[in-house]
Automatic annotation (TrEMBL):
InterPro entries with a match to the protein in the record: Cro/C1-type_HTH (IPR001387), Lambda_DNA-bd_dom_sf (IPR010982)
Name used for this protein in its record: Helix-turn-helix domain-containing protein
Alphabetical list of Gene3D superfamilies matching this protein: lambda repressor-like DNA-binding domains (1.10.260.40)
Alphabetized GO MF terms: DNA binding
Signal sequence coordinates: none
Origin species: Variovorax paradoxus
Location of the region described as Disordered in the Swiss-Prot/TrEMBL record: 56-80
């Protein structure tokens, strides 16, 4: 005859495992719900931060707009994007040294601009804009000269 104490102990551990399993399932469901809620809140915060940055940029432009008494700069204001510079250079299929030759700077300078380590000056922005308007044939023609 089996020992009644061992049977009782086995039954108690089985019931305890069953209870623990049901509690853990409830906790897992709650944890999943909380994680999804947190992710939704983070997305909402990111959206609000983007909107705030957009509005703060707009207000900065309004505040920093030149007065009517100040003389306006000649020509349009040029903007620079490292990613667009790299994309344009790869679209033309030229090396950084060749692209630098078109702009009037070294190839290393082009690499620094593309990596965001440096930014071009106003005069260099103008020459970048003129190179930007060229096509593959024009670039090949200018590099052969």
């Amino acid at each position: 005859m089996p020992n009644i104490a061992s049977i009782l102990k086995a039954e108690i551990s089985r019931v305890a495992r069953k209870e623990v399993r049901t509690e853990i399932e409830a906790l897992k469901k709650a944890s999943t719900h909380y994680r999804s809620s947190i992710a939704a809140l983070r997305r909402q915060i990111d959206g609000l931060e983007k909107e705030l940055r957009r509005f703060s940029k707009g207000s900065a432009r309004v505040r920093s707009a030149p007065d009517a008494t100040e003389p306006a700069e000649e020509g349009p204001a040029r903007r620079f994007s490292a990613g667009r510079l790299a994309a344009h250079r790869s679209k033309l299929g030229v090396s950084a040294a060749a692209y630098g030759k078109l702009v009037g700077v070294s190839g290393q300078t082009i690499y620094h601009w593309e990596q965001g380590k440096a930014r071009p000056r106003a005069a260099q922005l103008e020459s970048l804009a003129s190179v930007r308007s060229l096509g593959k044939r024009d670039v090949a023609q200018q590099l052969q000269e």
